[in-house]
């Protein structure tokens, strides 16, 4: 079996150690164990905001955020079909993604809560498409919904970035089902 490696702009072929690759013979299908395995991937934490059909602000915490393309500027995130905010985000023409900084664990928890006014005490302005924008963030992306894709029990939303900003701050980090800091993960 060969593996190609890039070094100094040249392609080299490296040989894998000799031996026979054994199939694991066991495929786990336990949702909890799968979630635990996924939790080994360290992520940032975001708050995604939009407006519902009546113009009310809606927001939720999400860590399913990724860049897609630089040209055009596209990002994605996904929302569970079981989320209480699913219909709003699935139908929204605009949304904003706020990457939280390390001091915003309380904000993350507030937007992850199951009740009450998630925007209570949050300093906001109005952005592209009328979407509420948190004024405190590590990075912020104002988006127009470009695509919606089925993704099992989630919908994947791809947004065209209309405006963005970033600050030189340490991000809030999530790993193995809990908040952590970059030094702990490293």
Structure description:
With 186 residues, the chain is mainly beta. Helix content is 14%, strand content 45%. It has 4 helices and 14 strands. It has a 7-stranded antiparallel β-sheet. A hairpin with a 2-residue loop joins strand 1 and strand 2 (10-15). The longest helix has 8 residues, at 31-38. The chain is globular. It starts with a strand and ends with a helix.
**Helix/strand order:** EEHEEEEEHEHEEEEEEH
Mean pLDDT: 89
The coarse overall form would be globular
Q: Helix segment count?
A: 4
What is Rg?
20 Å
Structural class: mainly beta
Largest sheet: 7 strands, antiparallel
Spatial ordering of strands, largest sheet? 5-4-8-11-12-7-6
Which blocks of ≥5 consecutive residues have pLDDT under 50?
A: 1-17
Helix content: 10-25%
Distance separating the two termini: 31 Å
How much of the sequence lies in strands comes to over 45%
Number of strands: 14
């Amino acid at each position: 079996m060969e593996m190609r490696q890039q070094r100094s702009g040249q392609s080299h072929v490296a040989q894998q150690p000799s031996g026979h690759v054994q199939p694991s013979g066991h495929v786990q299908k336990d949702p909890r164990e799968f979630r635990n395995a996924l939790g080994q991937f360290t992520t940032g934490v975001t708050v995604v905001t939009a407006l519902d059909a009546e113009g009310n602000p809606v927001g939720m915490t999400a860590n399913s955020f990724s860049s897609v393309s630089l040209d055009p500027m596209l990002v994605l995130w996904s929302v569970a079909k079981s989320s209480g905010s699913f219909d709003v985000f699935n139908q929204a023409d605009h949304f904003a993604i706020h990457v939280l900084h390390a001091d915003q664990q309380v904000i993350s928890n507030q937007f992850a809560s199951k009740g009450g006014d998630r925007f209570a005490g949050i300093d906001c302005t109005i952005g592209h498409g009328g979407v509420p924008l948190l004024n405190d963030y590590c990075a912020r992306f104002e988006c127009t919904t470009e695509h919606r894709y089925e993704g099992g029990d989630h919908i994947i939303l791809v947004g065209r970035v209309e405006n963005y900003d970033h600050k030189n701050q340490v991000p809030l980090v999530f790993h193995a089902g809990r908040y952590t800091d970059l030094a702990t993960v490293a």
